[in-house]
Amino acid sequence: MVRRAAEEIGERVSCDARYIGRVEAGEIRCPNYAYERVFRHMFPGRTLTDLGFVPRSAVRGRAARRPPHETRRETQETDRKTQETDRPYRSPAVQVPAQTPYHPHEDHEDHKDDEESDVLRRAFMTRGGVTVAAASLGPLGLAFDTPAAHRPVHRADARDADAVEEAVRRIRLLDDRHGADSLYRRAAAPLRAAYALLDAGATRQATADRLYSGVGELAISVGWLAHDSGRFDDARSHYAEALATARMTGDPALEAHAFCNTAFLARDAGRPREAVRAAQAAQRVGRGLGSARLMSLLALREAGGWAGLADRAGCEQALARAQALYERGPSDADPEWMSFYGEAELEGLEAQCWSALGDWSRAARHARRAAQLQDPHFARNIALYTAELADDLARGGQPDEAAAAGMRVLDLLGQVQSSRVQTMLAGTARVLLPHRRESGVSAFLERHADTLRAV
C-alpha cells in the first residue's frame, strides 16, 4: 500500500514488513522526507502529528527546513535517510530530550501523549486512509472533515466493527492512565468517523448490530472524557446520543450503561434527584443482564443521588444493597466497560457519599482505603481518591494530614490531567487557608499555587 502510493507520486521507498513493524513499535519517531511525502499523499490534509509521529523539529532540535536544491538522489536514498531521522522512540517518563522539555499542562494538541502516538501510527499503517483503523484517538483513519460527496463509498464490514470496539478500549486505557483533559478534543474525531460508518451502512446485519453497540459505547466514552474534564453540557449530549442509540436498537446493556453515566453526571452537576431516577432506570433495564457487579455499581449511583438530597436513610439502604451485590463476585455477564469497578472504586464511591452527607471521618476512612487498594494502572483514580481523602481530612479538622495527601496528588498531576481532580484540590486548598501558618500546610499551598501558575 505504501509502495503503491509512492509510485503514484514518483517516489521510491523500500517499505517492507520490518519498516511497518518499526513504525508500529514506535522506533521511528519521525519519518524521513521521502516517507513524509508519501504519507501526506496517502492522507491529504494530515500533518505528521495527526498520523502519530513527533514533529521533525522535536527530533532535530530545530525547525526543519529543506534546501530548495534538494536532489532526486537524496529522496531515493531511503535507507540512509532512515538512519538519520528515524531515531528510536523514548517515552517522556524515561527520557526527555533537553531541547524539548516535557510540560504536563501544555496544550496536548502537540505530541505529549506518546502512547496516543503509538496508537495513531498503528492505525494508519494498518488500515490506510480509506477504512476505519483500530485506533483509540485520532480520526480512525477517516478524513471525514471533507464534504460527504467527496468521501469514499465504504460499507462497514467486521473489521470496521473491530476497529470501533478497539477505539473504545484504547480511549478507556488512556483515560485510566492520564485523565480526560488531554484526550477530549482528539476523541471527537473517531466518534465522527464512527457515526459516518453508521450512515454508510453495513454489509451484514450482524455487523450493523455490532456497529450500533460500538458507536454507542464510543459516545459514552467520549461523554465521560467531557464529564471528567468539566464539560457537563457536552457530556450530557453524548450520553443522550448513546441512550437514543440503545433505545433504537433495543440494546439493554448499552441503555443501562448510558443511564449509569447519566446518573453520575447528574450527581456531579448538582441534580441529585435526576441522579436517583437515572440510576433506578438503569437498574430496571439491567436486572435481566445477569451481572451482580453491574447492579452493585448502579446501586452506588443511586446512593450518590440520595446523598446529594441529604437523605441518609435512602443512601445507607442503597449502599448496603451495593455491598451485598458486590460480594456475589464477578461473572461472565459483567460488561467489559466495568473493568474499573473493583473494591477500590466501591470504597471511593462510598467515600463520596459520606462526604456529601458531611460525615468527614467516615468519608476519609473509605477514601484512604480506596487509594490503597487501587491498581497502579489507574493513575487517574489514585489521584481522585487521594484528592477526596485530602478534602475529607481538611474538612474534618486534620490540616497536616490533608496537606500531606494533597502533596501526593500534586505528585500525580504530572501524568494525570483531570479537571475534576484539580477542582477538588483547589477546594481543599481554600479550606486549608486558615491553617497556612503550619509548615506542612504552607508547603502544600505554595506548591499548589506554583502548579496553578504553571498551567
Overview of the molecule:
It comes from Streptomyces thermoalcalitolerans. InterPro entries: TPR-like_helical_dom_sf (IPR011990). This protein is mostly helical and 455 residues long. The protein has 21 helices and no strands. Helix content is 64%, strand content 0%. About 21% of the residues have low confidence. The protein has four domains: 89 residues, no CATH class; 139 residues, no CATH class; 57 residues, no CATH class; 80 residues. The chain is globular.
Overview in brief:
This protein is an all-alpha fold. It is built from 21 helices and no strands. The model is unreliable at about 60-155 (pLDDT under 50).
Keywords summarizing the entry:
455 residues; mainly alpha; 4 domains; 0% strand; globular
Largest sheet: none
| H/E series | HHHHHHHHHHHHHHHHHHHHH
Low-confidence stretches: 60-153
Per DSSP, what share of the residues sits in E-state strands of 2 or more residues?
under 5%
- How many β-strand runs? 0
Helix tally equals 21
Rg, nearest Å = 24 Å
Measured as a percent range, the helix fraction is 55-70%
Give the overall form. globular
Number of domains: 4
First-to-last CA distance: 43 Å
Average pLDDT over all residues: 78
Structural class: mainly alpha
